[in-house]
Amino acid sequence: MRHRNATAYRFLTPYLLIFAIFWVWPIISSFLISFQATRTVPWRFAPTFNWGRLIGDPAFFNALKNTLLILVIQVPVMISLAIVMAVLLNSPLLKARGLYRFAFFAPVVVGEVAYSAVFRLMFSLDFGIINKLLNGVGLPKVDWFSNVTPAMALIMIAVTWRWAGYNAIIILAGLQSIPEDVYEAATLDRVSKVKQFFHITLPLLKPVIVFCAVLSIIGTMQLFTEPFLITERGGPGGGTETLGLLLYRQGFRSLNFGYASAVAYTMAGLAIAITLVQLWLTRDPK
Amino acid sequence: MAAVTLTNVVKRFGLFEVVHGANIDIADGEFVVFVGPSGCGKSTLLRMVAGLEDISGGKIAIGGKVVNDVEPADRGIAMVFQSYALYPHMTVEQNLSFGLRMNGNPKADTERRVKRAAEILRIDELMQRRPKQLSGGQRQRVAIGRAIVREPQVFLFDEPLSNLDAELRVQMRVEIARLHKELGVTMIYVTHDQTEAMTLADRIVVLKAGNVEQIGAPLDLYDDPANRFVAGFIGSPKMNFLKANVVEAGNGSVTVELVNHAGARLRKPLCGALPAVGAEVVLGVRPEHFFEAGEGECDIPVKADVAEHLGSVSYVYADAGSEELIIEREAARQRASSEHFTVSIKAERSLLFDKTGARIR
């Protein structure tokens, strides 16, 4: 048995080496770097330098506030929308179901730069279709890129557009695993469709919804593309800067790797903490 | 309690007709079993009674009221599903009370009904457990309990014991029979297992390919089947069918020659129209209706192939010409396999069918 294990590990060695060099070591290394002052040459060990700065840095708290705001508003809205989309996709009344499934999933496979460019055009102040539509129904134009609230809304709309369909497909798989006869039993029990949804469908979908929520929380904590490409590097004036963008700015523009590592570990820690709280809140009663 | 009447009930899925005009009268308090092979339309028929499938033609009446367009919940029925259909996220108690709670039934009445169902099914100890913490038999009890709390006029069972092991199936069969006796309500039960049908039913409805083949009391179907299908389906092991030709017909009887048994002949008195001489017929003999050589009117030699010893009785699978026969033998435990012996058929314990499978009486 020991010999067989040794053979197995020999086969695994190439992968384990790559995993150790490109995954394990960077994780350990960045943690160690977060305790070093990296704007001096050579770098020196200063355990409180980056972490101390983090606690008093208004830019960090601005990015944290923006990230949490997006998390608190966008994730529930997107998951709710994904549930509605999944229920519609699952309806026997829907024709051309495959086409809709593809259409809902398509945003995920669209290139990030392309979709960001299209969003910028659509929400442009003077030429965008969104403002034209708003005008068309008698509403004033919105300057999506110059004001913080519309810019944040734009980020949330964009992220929701991109990921709602993806989550809907996952939830659809969950919906299709609920046996039909459970609903038939409820129908015989004179339980209305609405009550069936809230008392049967939603509780039975809970594990899938929690899974989607955890994925979305992790994704939102790392949010980078949309504020970088759509609202031009977290604009206006840092109004849409997220933790991911702050990390990028500190690490790859200011080359302050120590502080960027501290931000990265804060992001990971927050994602784990929020996920654990959510798992605890949605745990099954004993 | 209520009678159930099906009149010319037809079911089509698109252009495909799966139930072809079923006519069935079920009396108040009767236990009727729909039995037939897979795909014969028995579950579809039950689901139409429940209102879970639309009726393409004909009428279904429950308690004298036509329910074709009545919602399932308003038909006064309760259904027990093959897969139990319990709500997995609810406790047993919540499963039992869910329908009543959702409809605003007074709390005291809901508690009374749940308690009564739990007592009847002896599941009081399980009330706080969830379905995944229950065994198959316990789940089935809860599913039946959920039907009981509705206090329906008619219970519908859709192959409720199919997912249980053999021992539990026998136990639950007894429970369901006890329940019927205790509640005295009309019950319609679907199964493909003829043993369940024989042991539970007041009357059995035998279905084949969407047609009602015969309706009758279990022993009536066993002793006096209307056709070859019913004769073969009811009874375990199934009836033996021996190919024969009519060689003489007259004076209220026919003489048939068994094609695969070296000209063995049997004279059988009939009370109806006689088949013509030369007609191809089939002689049906149940495994327990083979007698010792010389005891009947027609002896046929057979060679034992395999014997199944069930203790009280043995079944010998025997080669006889090009036909395989199943023969019940009390003494078979002493017989070695590959043994040659002779069995005898009595005219009065055999049935005759024509080429189409219809009974010749």
Describe what you observe in this structure.
Chain A: It holds the Pfam family BPD_transp_1. Chain A: Its main location: membrane. Chain A: Belongs to the binding-protein-dependent transport system permease family. Chain A: It comes from Mesorhizobium tamadayense. Chain A: It is a multi-pass membrane protein. The complex is a heterodimer of chains A (286) and B (361). Chain A has helices at 2-33, 49-56, 58-90, 97-109, 112-122, 129-136, 148-176, 180-188, 193-221, 225-229, 243-253, 257-281, and strands at 36-37, 44-45. The mean pLDDT of chain A is 92. Chain A has 286 residues and is mainly alpha-helical. With 361 residues, chain B is an alpha+beta fold. Chain B has two domains: 4-233, Rossmann fold (3-Layer(aba) Sandwich), CATH 3.40.50; 240-360, OB fold (Dihydrolipoamide Acetyltransferase, E2P) (Beta Barrel). Chain B is built from eight helices and 21 strands. In chain B, the strands form four sheets. Chain B has a six-stranded mixed beta sheet, with helices on both faces. In chain B, α2 packs antiparallel against α3 (107-121), α2 packs parallel to α4 and α3 (107-121) crosses α4 (136-149). The longest helix of chain B has 18 residues, at 166-183. Chain B is elongated and about 75 Å long. Classes of the chains: A mainly alpha (286), B alpha+beta (361). The A-B interface holds A 179, 181-182, 184-192, 195, 199-200, 203-204, 206 and B 50-52, 71-74, 77-79, 81-83, 85-89, 98-99, 102-103, 146, 150.
User: What CATH first level of chain A would be assigned?
Assistant: Mainly Alpha
**How many runs of DSSP E, i.e. beta strands of chain B?**
21
Low-pLDDT ranges of chain B: none
CATH superfamily of the largest domain in chain B: P-loop containing nucleotide triphosphate hydrolases
Number of helices of chain A: 12
Shape call of chain B: elongated
Q: Domains counted in the coordinates of chain B: how many?
A: 2
General shape of chain A: globular
Number of domains of chain A: 1
CATH architecture label of chain A:
Orthogonal Bundle
| Classification by helices and strands of chain A | mainly alpha
Average per-residue pLDDT of chain B, rounded, comes to 92
Q: What order do the helices and strands of chain B follow?
A: EEEHEEEHHHEHEHEEHHEEEEEEEEEEE
Strand fraction of chain A equals: under 5%
CATH topology of chain A: MetI-like fold
Strands of the largest sheet of chain B, in order across it?
A: 6-7-8-3-9-10
